């Protein structure tokens, strides 16, 4: 089964870049990498996704290694409002499986 | 554009009571999902549906039933609520090809 591994928690200083890693060594060749975040007790919010190439949108950048076994979500200038749990959930067939994610603390 | 709407937002049940949580999406998505989230934990998949009239079990289906009679609605039922079902419940929907999931705002359920 597809599986991802993320650090439990990370700290980042406000205004600095936050780099959140995800290991997805069992990802299949045509499977996209998706990232979400959950702020406090709200529903998870989609951030970005990619297949092979690096991607950037107004929220973040996604760097996927050439072998696709890992990726890094980059928040270029973290703010206090970026404090949240970040997920890179794997897909298993029709299902998206959310683990515990990485709890990012952005500190002033 | 409402996206995914869950009803109700909060509910307190007594042990043994039944209730139905409603999830409605207006994006014409084929796939719909019910997750539960306990304090400090990730989301766990309860049941999901890949189309109108179809349902399937997720990771933690015991004690729950679901129905997808209309494409836009996905209902989660608790026939006999137990304190262990105290949780926050999230509904989500996705397209077939683009699997970006849209989530509702959650239903906070307490069983006493």
Give the key terms:
heterodimer, A: five-stranded mixed sheet, 11 strands, B: 112 residues, mainly beta
Account of the protein in words:
The complex is a heterodimer of chains A (108) and B (112). Chain A is built from no helices and 11 strands. Chain A has 108 residues and is mainly β. Chain B starts with a strand and ends with a strand. In chain B, strands 2, 4, 5, 6, 9, 10 and 11 form a 7-stranded mixed beta sheet that branches. Chain B has 112 residues and is mainly β. The mean pLDDT of chain B is 94. Chains A and B meet through strand 4 and strand 10 of A and strand 4, strand 5, strand 9 and strand 10 of B.
Total E-strand runs of chain A? 11
Series of secondary-structure elements of chain B, N-terminal to C-terminal: EEEEEEEEEEE
What is the molecular shape of chain B? globular
- Summarize the biggest pleated sheet of chain B: 7 strands, mixed
List the helices and strands and how they pair.
The complex is a heterodimer of chains A (108) and B (112).
Chain A: E1 9-13, E2 18-23, E3 33-38, E4 45-50, E5 55-56, E6 61-64, E7 70-75, E8 84-87, E9 91-92, E10 95-96, E11 102-107
Parallel strand pairs in A: 1-11
Antiparallel strand pairs in A: 2-7, 3-4, 3-8, 5-6, 6-7, 8-11, 9-10
Chain B: E1 4-7, E2 10-13, E3 19-25, E4 31-37, E5 43-49, E6 56-57, E7 65-67, E8 73-78, E9 87-94, E10 102-103, E11 107-111
Parallel strand pairs in B: 2-11
Antiparallel strand pairs in B: 1-3, 3-8, 4-5, 4-9, 5-6, 7-8, 9-10, 9-11
Short description:
With 108 residues, chain A is an all-beta fold. Chain A has strands at 9-13, 18-23, 33-38, 45-50, 55-56, 61-64, 70-75, 84-87, 91-92, 95-96, 102-107. Chain A is globular.
């Amino acid at each position: 089964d597809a599986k991802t591994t993320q650090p439990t928690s990370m700290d980042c200083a406000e205004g600095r870049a936050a780099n959140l890693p995800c290991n997805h060594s069992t990802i299949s060749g045509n499977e996209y990498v998706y990232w979400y975040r959950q702020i406090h007790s709200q529903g998870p919010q989609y951030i970005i996704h990619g297949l092979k190439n690096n991607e950037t949108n107004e929220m973040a950048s996604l760097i996927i290694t050439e072998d696709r076994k890992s990726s890094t979500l980059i928040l270029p200038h973290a703010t206090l409002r970026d404090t949240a749990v970040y997920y890179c959930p794997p897909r298993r067939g029709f299902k998206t499986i959310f683990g515990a994610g990485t709890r990012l603390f952005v500190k002033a | 554009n409402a996206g995914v709407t869950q009803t109700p937002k909060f509910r307190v049940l007594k042990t043994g009571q039944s209730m139905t949580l409603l999830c409605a999406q207006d994006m014409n998505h084929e796939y719909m999902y019910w997750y539960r989230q306990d304090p400090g934990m990730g989301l766990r998949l309860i049941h999901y549906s890949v189309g109108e009239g179809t349902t399937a079990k997720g990771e933690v289906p015991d004690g729950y039933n679901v129905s997808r009679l209309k494409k836009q609605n996905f209902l989660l039922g608790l026939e006999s609520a137990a304190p262990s079902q105290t949780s926050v419940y999230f509904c989500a929907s996705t397209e077939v090809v683009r699997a970006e999931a849209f989530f509702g705002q959650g239903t906070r359920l307490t069983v006493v």
